[in-house]
Amino acid sequence: MTEKPSVFLLEATRSNIDTTKAASFGEIKYIFEQGDRRSSVFETRAYEVAIEERLNALGFDPARDIVCIAGRIVCVAVLFAVLTRLFGRFNILMFDAHDECYVMRTVGNLKGDSNGGLCIDPGTSAGSSYEAAR
């Protein structure tokens, strides 16, 4: 039996950013918990190592799990650089403000992949097919 995906957030977001809808894709896991001591993002190599260690400790599987794009953009950029270096290809959740839902995509090494995803209706837990505008 296949394990249910986990949704990884780099860290807890500010209170004005609601990521609860992302939980419909899987269990939320934080790469860094509030209060964790870690290097500054400006000490890039040390920050990369900390991300890699946490991903390993949390059992991140790029074929199954999903990374939610939320948080400080510089930190998210470093996270994406680490994921690209380690795995080349991984799943992301992007928030579609127009439809007020998260859309899952796969990024990296995409030769021939479709751009389809899953849009979760905010009022239900049921998903519907979603084709991205090209």
Q: What would a concise description of this structure say?
A:
With 134 residues, the protein is of the alpha/beta class. It has helices at residues 44-57, 73-87, and strands spanning 6-9, 27-30, 66-68, 90-96, 101-107, 116-120, 127-131.
Structure description:
The chain is α/β, with parallel strands linked by helices. It has one domain (6-131): Rossmann fold. The chain is 22% helix and 26% strand. The protein is globular and about 35 Å long. The protein starts with 5 loop residues before the first strand and ends with a strand. The model is unreliable at 116-134 (pLDDT under 50).
Map the helices and strands.
Elements: E1 6-9, E2 27-30, H1 44-57, E3 66-68, H2 73-87, E4 90-96, E5 101-107, E6 116-120, E7 127-131
Parallel strand pairs: 1-2, 1-3, 3-4
Antiparallel strand pairs: 4-5, 6-7
Q: Regions with pLDDT < 50 over 5+ consecutive residues?
A: 116-134
Kindly report the CATH topology.
Rossmann fold
Secondary-structure-based class equals alpha/beta
Helical stretch tally: 2
The main sheet comes to: 5 strands, mixed
DSSP strand content = 25-35%
Overall 3D geometry? globular
Average pLDDT value? 80
Which structural traits does this protein have?
5-stranded mixed β-sheet; globular; two-stranded antiparallel ribbon; 26% strand; Rossmann fold; disordered C terminus; alpha/beta; 2 helices; 134 residues
